[in-house]
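Slide 14.
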Amino acid sequence: MSIQTAQSLHGVITAPPQAIPDGETMRAQLTIGQPRKRRLPDGTVVCREMETCQVVLSGTPAQRALGRFRIGDAVIAAGRLEPDGVFHADRIGPDTATTSFELMPGRARQPRAAERTADDRTPASMPAPARFSHAAGPGL
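Slide 15: predicted structure.
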């Protein structure tokens, strides 16, 4: 048995997620930044400018990301880095190393595809977003 693996990217969201019109497919674009720090010989740490990367999501992950993530949220995205420098994410979620979060009641079990009705597939019927808070601050 082989386990699938993927490239990942972690950081904080530095700009509001944006919807990108693309025919019938929902697409979202996020900017994720990673703080750069340098330790000086005297032991002090100097924070340099944040390096950013554009992240693009498609389909259901895009719909969910648009409604759930805000500037400052620490996230991890899994996908692939394209030659143009854009990271195409298949999945994105909170970074549990720096973020604490609670799932909303009623989200313990999602209905299986065979159990869903047409009404269950509309964005209005999607569960409420998770609540996020930074435990130690973004990027720490």
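Speaker note: Residues 121-126, 135-140 have pLDDT under 50 and may be disordered.
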